[in-house]
Amino acid sequence: MKKEMTLGYAHIDNPDEREIVEMVADAVRMPQQWLRKYYSAIIGRNISNRLAWLITRSQLALIAVILLAPQSTVLGLAAAGWFALSIVKCKKEL
Predict the structure, then answer these.
(1) Consecutive H or E run containing 12
(2) Which of 39, 54, 60, 89 is the most buried (most CB within 10 A)?
(3) Is the pLDDT at 71 greater than 90, yes or no?
């Protein structure tokens, strides 16, 4: 018995559907763009989306250190390592 499978992709021909997809994509990108503009204003120069993401990750790592350090030494050290690596990556990107 021969088994065949056809793999396809979604192709949007309708302009209304294309506009809806673009609106959803813009809505998803909006917080990222807002953060990038905010960080650019704070730093004083335009930054890339990658650097904005690295700064956000550093902030999350710092929050993890603050929340996890009192609970567990091992988790606190792991979070501190994550924070240190995040800061190093940010510094390299700047």
Answers:
(1) none
(2) 54
(3) no
The alpha carbon dihedral of 2, 8, 13, 16 has a sign of positive
The tokens for 71 are: 């609970």
Q: What confidence score (pLDDT) does residue 60 get?
A: 93
What is the DSSP code string of 2-51?
Answer: -------------HHHHHHHHHHHHHHHHHHHHHHHHHHHHHTS---HHH
Question: What are the C-alpha distances in Å from 82 to residues 17, 39, 64, 88?
Answer: 42, 21, 9, 10
User: What confidence score (pLDDT) does residue 9 get?
Assistant: 57
What length does the chain have? 94
The C-alpha atoms of residue 71 and residue 34 are separated, in whole angstroms, by 34
Query: Tokens 């650019």 map to which residue?
Result: 40
